[in-house]
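Aim 2 progress update. The chain analyzed this quarter is reproduced below.
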Amino acid sequence: MLRRLVVGGFFSVLALLVVECWPMAQQISVSPDSKWIALSVPPELAERSHLWLIERATWEFVTALRDGEAVSWPTWSPNGQELLYVASTGLQSVEGLNNLNNMIAQEWRLMLYSPETGESRQLFEDQESYPWGLSFSPDGQKIAYYRTSAGGKIEIVLFDRRKNQQQVIQVVQAGEQLRYLPYGPSLVWLAGTNDRSPRLVLVRVEEILSSLEQASTVRVVRGRIVRAQLDCYCEEEIAHGYYPLLPTSLFIVASPDGRRLYLNGYPRSFALAPEEPIYLYEIDIEERQALALYEGNGIALAPALSPNGSQLLFTVIENQKSDLYLRSFQALSPAAKITDDGRTGFGFWLTDEEIGFLRSAPGDRPAREIWRKNLITGEEEALTPILARQRRTAQLSVQLAVAQQETQQYKEELSQTQEMLRELQRQIESLSQSLQQLSTGLQAQSQQTVEALSRQLIDPVQQINSLNRTVSDLKQQTEGLDAKLTELQKRPQFDIWLVVLIVAVGALFVVGILRRSFKTTVQQLAFPPQ
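Predicted structure tokens:
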């Protein structure tokens, strides 16, 4: 725990010297052809989430990229035709800037912008980590970056654009145990030789000791620089000994031919103290020899090679003042100071004859300004006012970009709606055909059913017709009876006693006739004729 606290204290002091004075390296990137400058605009010019694309020849604002709440790590491809950057929900830190491992996980997307088409496309996205140190392989087909996860691991990840796959090639730090320490803002690539694939330069601090008597004393006992071969995942040592390359933005760069490394480091095991110098070294990778390019009393940092690799620009901080130094490899003379105001640092190359740098204005909290300098004429020019005048244009560009994004989203939603409508139309047409087939089937079935029922109903119909005729006859008879009854009803009514009398007389008459007829019959039976 003490070792972790001491190392964290060292990081904090170094952050005050570098990070608080100058922006991190992920804020400026110049295309290899020196045509474009990608600038993550500081807060005094625009919102932090803006990434400006500037034409170097005129320093005219071209466009502003804005995806998410924060845009960082602009990195140009080797051919200068693509700009890689990270769009995230914002860079947050749990314990401050004392360690890159403190960056917490957040949602982010890796984006690729084409200046030719003016369009951005997403390569992939993640929600369990935070990426930093983006860099292209020399052929532009692989992208290496550090990934800091919420679980406290720092990993080196390789993304293959051809296969659209990611894989972890190194675990830098795990838990409380300090194993690997990444160095510099980006991973350094070396061009492959003898038909070998590109290689990565990795820095490993093997042992850090802290003094129990002085908690502010930190000593690096051993350090190593290795190059990792991607096809075999094996490491080859380049240098070993007194190069304590700690995880801060002090930078390490490689020559264009991949034969030399330029980096800073302590000349021996060191005790953290204001008077402790940091030298600048050149390491021949094949010969494995180190040459000190700067051995002053100050802290040398931020080495930057010119596009043709013939000059080295770096910053020296001494007595809380910083200036730019230039070392030409074509001359045998030592590095020369090219600024003398004590407020200049973090130089970057625009062309082989022109550099850019950051300069702070006097004040309690100096504002950062972007300047450029012609190395031939010595002329300097402040670019911040030029950029400030374009702030309104940038804001309108961002608003236009947002409107275009919303329009694109509306178009996508409209396209989805149209596709849904087309699918619905296809379903309706299919349903109509199904209904038509069903109707045809129902008609045929109905025809057959009607014919069958018709055949079955012939006899009942005939019977009903016969019954109807019978009913008609009965009806006629009923009508005859009704007529008779009506006629009878029309006849005059007789007295009941008269009727009884008539009935009695008729009955006596009938009885008399019956007696006579019976008597005659009996006589005939008794006395048959002879």
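The first helix runs from residue 2 to 18. Residues 89 and 142 are 25 Å apart (CA to CA). These observations will guide the mutagenesis experiments scheduled for the next reporting period.
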